[in-house]
Amino acid sequence: MSTRFKAQDVEVITDARLRLAPAGSISSVKSPEFYWQGNGVPTFDFESNEIRIEWSGDPAPFIVSQDKPQQPMFQFQDDTWSFQPGRYEGSVELSRSGNREPLTERFCLIISKRAVDEMRRGDARGIYFFRNDLPKFTSSSKYSHCYVRETD
Known about the structure:
Layout: E1 11-23, E2 35-45, E3 50-57, E4 62-64, E5 73-77, E6 86-96, E7 103-111, H1 113-121, E8 130-131, H2 135-138, E9 147-149
Parallel strand pairs: 7-9
Antiparallel strand pairs: 1-4, 1-6, 2-3, 2-5, 6-7, 8-9
């Protein structure tokens, strides 16, 4: 994260929240209740041929400025939720200091049965890429610019 505007000011992010709400055919399913578990850094383990997320810090305020971009990998957890195939409406919300309005980015996520099966088996080194920019997704109104498993 960084500011795209030239400025001397810095932003202090005090909290991060992830929300996902089942939509469409699964709208009656209970929404997960994520909490910010910590921050991580991805590393590649050559012995196991896997990408691992290593802990880098507890949830804590951090500073964002133009000259020092931050790249925390937020780790969110819900201890009871189990994802299922369907469409989810989501948002990531970053709270800012100084009684300023939170920064919110809305998105949608489509998880196919194939992606659910793959994630439950533990394939793909433990990291599953969902994209919204591949031509096969952007050319179809079925996906409405949602994030979709890149192998679907």
